[in-house]
Amino acid sequence: MSAPLFEPRDPAFEPRVRASFGRQSAMATLGAKLQRVEAGRVEIELPFAEHITQQHGFVHGGVVSAVLDSACGYAASSLMPAEAGVLTIEFKVNLLAPAQGRRFRVVGEVVKPGRTITVSEGRAWSVDDEGREKLVASMVATMMVVTGRDGIQH
Amino acid sequence: MSAPLFEPRDPAFEPRVRASFGRQSAMATLGAKLQRVEAGRVEIELPFAEHITQQHGFVHGGVVSAVLDSACGYAASSLMPAEAGVLTIEFKVNLLAPAQGRRFRVVGEVVKPGRTITVSEGRAWSVDDEGREKLVASMVATMMVVTGRDGIQH
Amino acid sequence: MSAPLFEPRDPAFEPRVRASFGRQSAMATLGAKLQRVEAGRVEIELPFAEHITQQHGFVHGGVVSAVLDSACGYAASSLMPAEAGVLTIEFKVNLLAPAQGRRFRVVGEVVKPGRTITVSEGRAWSVDDEGREKLVASMVATMMVVTGRDGIQH
Amino acid sequence: MSAPLFEPRDPAFEPRVRASFGRQSAMATLGAKLQRVEAGRVEIELPFAEHITQQHGFVHGGVVSAVLDSACGYAASSLMPAEAGVLTIEFKVNLLAPAQGRRFRVVGEVVKPGRTITVSEGRAWSVDDEGREKLVASMVATMMVVTGRDGIQH
């Protein structure tokens, strides 16, 4: 997954994405923190925490998926015009290994930008105390651009 | 999605599923409450709450997906032997409408039970103040049965 | 999967769908035959044949998927205005059992019709010599409506 | 999608994969030709042909998917013990652009090999008369290893 180069249509995409992420209460609840924001690529960190686990003590796969969804969505959003909104219409996730570790590095990247439909891919790696990474989940997500609909922006 | 009839291998599946759900801290964090538990079918309620929203004030699609994942997983688990564990290996969700409403009714049902692989389908409906329901998301999830692996049970 | 009732926007949807299916050389190559065409629901028959098998002598899962894709796409198309085109933007298929049998009954149904995006679900059953059916595959497919693009119609 | 390096468990994986592909009548029917076979990576060529088109004259998305499924499955199979069989349990495909072109280059690669479950990713590019490539489809596929089941081998 080497990042393709994209030309952003909104030069101020980074503060726009950061402000929108800041309004996602769900990400704050899960403890997810926005890291790098590039044109077509977004990285989020999710620290391990007990309040997001499932019954075996791993992070809940659905929680990893929610963070991947945000990463994929903001990767798409970064390439959009300033006034456009982005809605995830579907995603598919493969949970490749139990989500154990000190923290998780979650990356979303645009594979195919489009006028109406944009497709992103995501990867989540667990990171242990020594900084060693292991791939734990992958995602493909399809996003739709929405313009001129009240309440759906950024 | 009319529930097929399944014969549970563990007659005590209901308390087992309820105890396991009770250990999913992530579900408590999101506010999800386990409702009915039948053989091959599980229903969860998710009340609307500000701490699980995305930037437009709807419930985050990834949060709806996480609850659907639990519903699909426990539907599969209800048909398993007492000592088996169930891991979601992948799922796909379609977000059909914005997750607005007073609360959400989330149902997971087994489509195809198997010795190693079980496939479940999920549906999430928003429910408004008058009790009217609207389909907001659908899921297909593939679960693997795990036996004899330490730490992966129930 | 009980068919919801939909109101077609094009009263002449059935001959339009049948004519378009007739132009899908791929379906003729595979031996697929269009059966019932209703508003939001399409049924296709695929007879077992040696030229569509994989290495174990079952029908190739990708072939079953291709027929499911056509069934899901035409279910969506049946609800569209006469001049609109429908493109599959993504689908996900679960292959639930080996595709053995005398023939296969493949059904696509619209779950959520929309102005831009329509979601359909498909099911494929094998049918044996005594007419007994067994579910062998399920699909979820996302279709986009395309209007005013040369060469993409019906 | 840079190929990770895998150590094959069966040193004779290449002739085994080629022989099995040769028994897939469906691939011969579609005109697909096996090209490179490496440990964890398989490449197939699909020439454009009228008998595999849909109603607009592009190659049917389901046909592209069927070839991607074979590429992903044989990528998984290349890493298996000689006596194991591989079954696709599910796949998801995104059709990113109309499948137009002189021919198509279809690649499947293993992302996560496993004892029971292996996950592969696929890409399909159209190739025009000048050799220029364009990404037209991507796949994620989940495969299950099957051993000791009569009739399911290689």
Fraction of residues in helix of chain A: 10-25%
What proportion strand of chain A?
35-45%
Number of strands of chain A: 6
What global shape of chain A is seen?
Answer: elongated
What does it look like?
The structure is a homotetramer of 154-residue chains. The model of chain A has no long low-confidence stretch (mean pLDDT 94). Chain A has a six-stranded antiparallel β-sheet with strand order 1-2-4-5-6-3. In chain A, strand 1 and strand 2 form a beta hairpin. Chain A contains three helices and six strands; from the N terminus they run ααββαββββ. Helix content of chain A is 21%, strand content 38%. Chain A is of the alpha+beta class and 154 residues long. Chain A has helices at 13-22, 25-30, 61-77; strands spanning 33-38, 41-47, 85-95, 103-112, 117-127, 133-146. Chains in contact: A-B, A-C, A-D, B-C, B-D, C-D. At the A-D interface, strand 6 of A face strand 6 of D.
Helix/strand layout:
Four copies of one chain form a homotetramer.
Chain A: H1 13-22, H2 25-30, E1 33-38, E2 41-47, H3 61-77, E3 85-95, E4 103-112, E5 117-127, E6 133-146
Antiparallel strand pairs in A: 1-2, 2-4, 3-6, 4-5, 5-6
